[in-house]
Amino acid sequence: MHFIGAATLLSLVAAVSSAPSPAQSRFATGTTFWPSFKIGGFNQPVVTYYGYFYLGKDTSTVGCDPKVEGTPKCDTMGSTHWKIWYAGTAVLEVQVPEGQQLYVDQTGALRYTAPGKPQLPAGTSGSGFRVRYGENKTLDFWHTSGSFVACPEGPEGVYKIFVDGKDKKLETQKKCVPVAGSGRPTGSNGASWYSYLTEPKKGKN
Question: Residue 11: left (phi > 0), alpha (psi -120 to 50), or beta?
Fold first, then answer.
């Protein structure tokens, strides 16, 4: 029979108690996925367009900038990856120095910073993003300050994404529709070689 000394036993207890739980370690380095929102009974992929996020917008106008010659246009669902960090911040999963961070502006619009310019505008919030595993190997994501809503903008069937506060102001005043956020894990796919523009390049529409 082997006996464990008191010092050894205490060190083992300390190691176990200090180890992160499976849920903590799972998201400690962030969770990457293809984002979509459910509207009209169907999940629609999120489209980036010059600093904002849309549903139903022409994906040939997503406003992205390929960094590698020969890279196809960013016109597919797979070209928009999000990563939500365990601390509650979120980024576009791109190969851009300093990254491109998601944030909510003063109007409630969900936006992202310019390539290589991670500083958030004054009066905006870059925290409050949450993610967890849902059913059928999907991911559910939400924002702690309110619910995601899709607000009509432009042609019929096009919506801009906002975060509506607890008072449901956007839902009541702008006829915005609550939308549930879900995602599909990207698996082994790495960060995109695109950056997403916040304004058109000079000489281009």
Answer: alpha
| Domain coverage including residue 94 | 24-196
Q: pLDDT-derived band of residue 121, with 50, 70 and 90 as boundaries?
A: very high
Residue 186 CA to residue 82 CA, distance in Å, equals 9
Cβ–Cβ under 8 Å, residues 53 and 62: no
The whole-angstrom separation of Cα 105 and Cα 124 is 5
State the DSSP H helix or E strand holding residue 178, giving kind and residue range, or none if neither. strand 177-178
Domain count, the chain: 1
Residues in the chain: 205
Cα dihedral: 178, 102, 27, 36 (round 10): 40
Q: Does the reported pTM lie above 0.90?
A: no
pLDDT (tens digit, 9 = 90+) per residue, 158-203? 999 999 998 898 998 888 999 999 988 876 666 777 788 888 877 5
